[in-house]
Amino acid sequence: MTSQETEIFKSKVTVYVFACWILAAFGGLMFGYDVGISGGVTGMDDFLIKFFPNVHERKLHAAESNFCKYDDQMLQLFTSSLYLAALVSSFFASKACTVLGRKPTILMASAFFVAGAIVSSAANVNWVLILGRILFGIGIGFGNEAVPLFLTEIAPIQHRGAVNILFQLFVTIGIFIANLVNYGTGKIHPHGWRISLGLAAVPGLILFIGSIVITETPPSLIERGKEEQGKAALKKIRGVEDVDAEYHQIVAACEQGRQVKQPFKKLFKRSMFPALFISNIIQVFQQCTGINAIMFYAPVLFQTLGFGSDASLLSSVITGLVNVGATFVSIYLVDKVGRRKLLLQASVQMLVSMVAIGAILLVHLGDTGTLDRVWAAVVVILVCTFVMSFAWSWGPMGWLIPSEIYPIETRTAGFALAVSTNMIFTFIIAQAFLSMLCHLKAYIFFFFAGWILLMGLFALLLLPETKGVPIDLVEERLWRQHPVWKRFFKNEEKVTA
Ligand code: BGC
């Protein structure tokens, strides 16, 4: 069989398989809902009075500079604690994914998430609130591990990028819905915050039902020795009877995989370095774009710039919409123009946006002044151009690329490590951004711009194109032909050696 033949297998998009994609993608909605909900909740007075009275006091009486109004470690911890739980749990999720399969892991994710919604919305004391955050976090750790893998594994190769990006699309929809919910519940006293946190149960429940309906992925079944079921699942999701070619390819990949007993140890072998490096540095870069400074704290950020609270909220709704819309661009383009071109184009657009925002704030926003209307509008537009380019590049590619560059034997372990790196850096940004804003002031945007420059160079020099490369040809096509990565392979050495 030639390489070309291994690439495109016969498939039809049936209603069932489409339903599987959409249901699984609700895992993204869970994640996005949480990204979007916590910033708004921490801004609600009722919530602050109940759990963080000191912060509320400070908020009322402090006469601080623009950039320092919201600098508070406890407040940031509320947002960030969840990511610590997600970080730890992604390793257990990796084990669950390998031993039990992707489907039960998704089921567990949704159960934890629903539990988190119930506990945190019913909380009356701080430790119960934190317990709720931890349950949410475990749900996210499990979901973010299993869902992108699931989507990548059930997608026909020619649509793999687009199907995987459904996860990111639902993340952005989740963020947007959360912004709208907060807008409504912020007016409901004193329990609006409970509704915000409790409504997280809705995507959790949909995913729960979804995880019963969806099929297990063929690679996961075959990897666990259930060849016949794997073949039947493959026929079902491809909508055709003749799946032999693809089936044999998966079986061969799994056979190699079975020889590896300790995937985490294998991850640190020399031949695995390119995948390990790329999948993790992409996570660092994704977070160091500064995206979550905007996603978590957009309302606070816009207030910092002197907007009134309604204008701030409206601006965050606008950026939320742009985030959703631009993700469609990615879905449309990713399997046509490839991953690298999107990343490169976006790096330039993000760099220009960040530098321009920083410059405007430096020149036009003093420590205690406000921006005039025209400059304020320009800043909102620049935030939009920034968010839009993130949404068609580093956002979705952060989940797509790590799910398609590992061989099967290290895939769940490698992906788990990438998920935790993402969570560590999400945690750091969530925990540090408001303090950094206070200390660096407008220069914080140049700080992010510096990172964006670096990641653009990375995409240019170190990232091979992964579009259309089948799993079993990753080593041959990506690493062995790359001027830098080929050094990690001796001529005769195989990835599984
Ligand atoms: C990132 C999140 C971010 C979101 C924004 C995701 O890819 O992992 O941290 O909040 O994109 O849309």
TrEMBL record:
Principal location: membrane
Subcellular location: Membrane
Pfam family, one: Sugar_tr
UniProt entry keywords in alphabetical sequence: Membrane, Sugar transport, Symport, Transmembrane, Transmembrane helix, Transport
InterPro entries xref list: MFS_dom, MFS_STP/MST-like_plant, MFS_sugar_transport-like, MFS_trans_sf, STP/PLT_plant, Sugar/inositol_transpt, Sugar_transporter_CS
Ranges that cross the membrane: 13-33, 74-93, 105-123, 129-151, 163-181, 193-214, 275-300, 312-335, 342-362, 374-394, 415-437, 443-463
Membrane topology (UniProt): Multi-pass membrane protein
Domain Major facilitator superfamily (MFS) profile: 20-467
SUPFAM superfamilies: MFS general substrate transporter
Keyword Protein biosynthesis: no
UniProt cross-references to PANTHER family, sorted A to Z: OS07G0206600 PROTEIN, SOLUTE CARRIER FAMILY 2, FACILITATED GLUCOSE TRANSPORTER
Family statement drawn from the similarity comment of this UniProt entry: Belongs to the major facilitator superfamily. Sugar transporter (TC 2.A.1.1) family.
Protein name, as recorded: Major facilitator superfamily (MFS) profile domain-containing protein
Natural source organism: Penstemon davidsonii
